[in-house]
Amino acid sequence: MSGKDATSPFRNEQICLRAMEEADLGAAHSLSVAVGWPHRQGDWRAVFEIGHGYCAHDAIGRLVGTAMWWPIGAAFATIGMVIVAPSLQGQGLGRQMMSAVQEAAQGRTLQLNATLAGMKLYKSQGFRAIGAVRQYQGVARPAKWHSSADILVRPSTAEDWASIAELDRAAHGVDRRNVLRALTGDAAGAIGERDARVTGFAFCRPFGRGYVIGPIVAFDEETAIALAAPFVMAHAGYFVRADIPEGMTGLSCFLEECGLLPAGGGTTMIKGRAPRRSGRVRVFGLINQAIG
User: Fold this and answer.
1) Domain ranges (residues) in the chain
2) Which residues, in sequence order, are CB contacts of 146 under 8 Å at separation 6+?
């Protein structure tokens, strides 16, 4: 979103921090490329349109830092796209941007996925680790896998959105339907059913170097794999990525069989009271590491 609802700009020596604007997206994309992130400019635009951001500029106007946050309901938000130019890392700019984000999101529980480099900063600001995310990626290939006859996987339709929103809320403990609708607008969706009951969903959309499978939400890992499998097969020969919570042994083995190999990840951290999840529904794949 634009900066009309952001706090006032502030300066620290020769660095100016202000609300992110649409005109900043090209420079933000270039900064993410400089630190090795795979995001396309379109990926930046997608998260910008549903969130709030800050940009840091140096004395000659170069963009040298970014940080974003996404409100999800009145009591929860996620933080991501926190990037500092390599030449300024370790000098306090990340701390300044995080302070601005937390001031803007005051009163909400905050969650993020931290890189190893960012852990010390986030711990110092009151975040605690609650889990981990593992990134799998590579050129996809079909795997020798057969779905259970009990699981029906079909394309999602507009009529499925009530079920998708209900499952997602049960798995995350917050209502993310607006975020889901915004970020899956150009995605292919799949629904898993057992005995005519919706037991999971997944999406696959263009991202970075190719495609990303996520989110994946389901009652069990067997359904999660059944939901991911058609997307892997449909994109055989293309670069595919999935970000999954740690501990999903069956799903991770399936992804590796399909040519998606471990490629790092992050630590899930939270500040405040964690949302209360309900029932058996679990998150098996993230929509992205920034939003969760």
Assistant:
1) 3-107, 135-263+277-285
2) none
Q: Is 135-263+277-285 a CATH 3.40.50.2000 domain?
A: no
CB half-sphere exposure, 108, CA atoms < 13 A:
21
Task: Tell me how far apart the terminal alpha carbons of the chain are, to the nearest angstrom.
Answer: 19
Name the residue with tokens 């996809």.
140
pTM of the model: 0.91
User: How far is 280 from 138, CA to CA, in rounded Å?
Assistant: 30
Assess contact for 254 and 229: CB atoms under 8 A.
yes
The predicted pLDDT at position 2 comes to 32
Measured from the Cβ of residue 141, the count of other Cβ atoms closer than 10 Å reads 15
3-107 and 135-263+277-285 agree in CATH topology: yes
Question: Which amino acid appears at position 58 of this protein?
Answer: D
Segment 90-121, tens digit of pLDDT: 889 999 999 999 999 999 999 999 998 899 99
Provide the percentage of residues in the chain whose pLDDT is more than 70.
96
Three-class SS of residue 234? helix
pLDDT at 1 over 50: no
Residue at token pair 């931290």:
114
With contact defined as beta carbons under 8 Å apart, do 139 and 239 qualify?
yes
CA distances from 138 to 143, 204, 289 (A): 14, 15, 17
Whole-number Å distance between alpha carbons of 158 and 268: 31
**What's the CA gap between 232 and 37, in Å, rounded?**
22
CATH level 3 topology of 3-107: Aminopeptidase (3.40.630)
Half-sphere exposure of 110 (CA within 13 A, CB side): 22
The token duo for 57 is 């500029």
Q: Determine the residue type at 3.
A: G
